[in-house]
Amino acid sequence: MNTPSFVICIENSEYTASLEIRKIYQVLPYVDPAKSGHLRLIDESDEDYLYPKTCFLDACLTKSVE
Q1: CA distance 57 to 4
Q2: Which of 25, 31, 26 is nearest to 10 (CA)?
Q3: Which of 1, 7, 19, 36 gives 12 a disulfide partner, CB atoms 3.0 to 4.6 angstroms apart?
Q4: 22 to each of 9, 10, 44, how far by Cα in Å?
């Protein structure tokens, strides 16, 4: 499965200070088989961290919106 370029946060109960519900985040490249259930993105602290994929939905944006 390909990693999406952009995702929408749908769950932040464990990350309320770091993620905003309904906000679109850009997914950063990350290759680590041990962390395959995670996405790397820049959160509200302006730092990149790993978050569970279950916190997000793929944001299918058109090229012009991206």
Answers
A1: 9
A2: 25
A3: 19
A4: 5, 6, 13
Measured between alpha carbons, how far is 42 from 50 in angstroms, rounded to an integer?
9
- Per-residue pLDDT of 4-18, as tens digits, reads 699 999 999 999 999
> What span, in angstroms and rounded, lies between the C-alpha atoms of 5 and 28?
8
**Contact present, 41 and 27 (Cβ < 8 Å):** yes
pTM for the full predicted model: 0.81
- State which residues of the chain have pLDDT below 50: 1
In the three-class reduction of DSSP (H, G, I as helix; E, B as strand; rest coil), residue 10 is classed as coil
